[in-house]
Automatic annotation (TrEMBL):
One of its GO terms (biological process) is cilium assembly. Residues 278-301 have a biased composition (Polar residues). SUPFAM superfamilies: TPR-like. TPR repeats lie at residues 1-29, 30-63, 132-165. This is Bardet-Biedl syndrome 4. Signal peptide: none annotated. The gene is BBS4. InterPro entries: TPR-like_helical_dom_sf, TPR_rpt. It comes from Piliocolobus tephrosceles.
Amino acid sequence: MLGKIHLLEGDLDKAIEIYKKAVEFSPENTELLTTLGLLYLQLGIYQKAFEHLGNALTYDPTNYKAILAAGSMMQTHGDFDVALTKYRVVACAVPESPPLWNNIGMCFFGKKKYVAAISCLKRANYLAPFDWKILYNLGLVHLTMQQYASAFHFLSAAINFQPKMGELYMLLAVALTNLEDIENAKRAYAEAVHLDKCNPLVNLNYAVLLYNQGEKKNALAQYQEMEKKVNLLKDNSSVEFDSEMVEMAQKLGAALQVGEALVWTKPVKDPKSKHRTTSTSKPASFQQPLGSNQALGQAMSSAAAYRTLPSGAGGTSQFTKPPSLPLEPEPAMESSPNETSEQIREK
């Protein structure tokens, strides 16, 4: 109970210490081992998470929470087939689990089987209609399939439940841009910039929209703000940036005449770049518009997953291309369908 109180207060470190002591007194308690594994998973300490979840499965091979968490970890690292094998076992025990169907859907999304992904996510949404993570994922998949009206529908619903998450407004702006509602897209981007102070993708997408609308001065301001965020991330962590993001930023920088190569990374070699790079020697009025935010939407959406995001809190984006917001069992509450980590990832 003391560990659960620390979890309710959001103090994960103290909760872990309490659960570690509990496991020392009761090393075969699968509930304690599973909860401790989930806490380590939420903090991104995968080795210890896998160790405790493995111990839980050793004592109870049918522990569906541990199986679901282990599958989530495999899904995070791109091993979708093995994760689906784990989820098949869970489906026999809890066939109506929203996190289970959410994870299965995002596995299919990672395998680029989008119709199957939507079917599974729709079932998860039917079982948990107020879970914003599932709505986020549905919007993400529809955005990837270029079904922008459906994406707008689900992203708007997700915003109603999670109004302080800047990433949602950014994805909504991409959908609005492709629906040719430029004014509302600008408003959505402005709100995203206001809420998200660390994700450079927000400023990059906003700059692309402004550039395509001929507002070069404002586009340059957003581009410079993006560079500040990138430099800050580079100084604070060894984060890898999405290659599509880097390529688009290089093209935008060249178009705005602020340098073709970005300072935070080496140029990405691309055999097709000769055919796609915007020419800076042409007058501005003859420049081709940069990506319609369609390909850009895929880059930012796949980079939009959060490693850990408790309900109502912010987080730091991953820029590598995770499968986006799969969900994880709630370590604090036994019966809560609203699972904490984005990996029930998130994205």
